[in-house]
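So, could you explain the following?
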Amino acid sequence: MHLFEILIILHVVAGTTGLAAFWVPVFARKGAASHRKWGRIACYGFVVAGVLAIAMALLSLFGPEERLPSVTDRALFDGLFGWMMLYLGLLTIGFADYGLAVVRHGRAREKLRGPRYQIVIAAVIVSAINCGIYGARIGDPLMVAVALLGLAAMGLQQVFIWRKRTPYTQAYIGEHFRALIGMGISAYTAFMAVGLIRWVPEQVFNPLVWAGPSMVGVGLIVWFTHQANRKRPANRARSLNT
């Protein structure tokens, strides 16, 4: 068995664990024991899957064997299964790292400004720029779109981390939720890159299939933000009265 095949098996195990555990904290009561437990399982599963995705992307780009010789457009293959897979792996890790860190340090944001977290964010930004430039060069709008989404997400995280005005007390909860939904989007998208080529190879370059996780994730973010905005005035009023 080749190294690439071993990585795929491990990636599937880790990714399946994360994908299965992901929905429990989404719908469980926030802050409950099940929410925390399954949220950590999902994060750790996705981080492992992200690391393995990076390894597979590097093998696809620089390994001695040509991956999927049936794909004749090698520039597009290198883009989707090389540079975009590398970026999505880093993006998944970055979202998971930030989603956990913002709960731990949400009320002490200066800790998020240190090298430990800023290096991870910088790695995601660099890989997103590279993904977008490569996509623009080969004329693939999908790579450009996912790169722009990642850059926007990292920008929003940096706004929360670096802004001088102290956010309202529960602001970190929204950051936590959006980061972990983003983690799910990037993980589902990267995971599909491994599965689709084997299950439905004729659909592997279909942009609508790749856009599915983003559409669901953005919908969840919009819904959560709407719910949080409805509750925020009551929380502010309660804090003023105490």
In short: Residues 57 and 82 are 4 Å apart (CA to CA). Residues 3-227 form one domain. The first helix runs from residue 3 to 27.
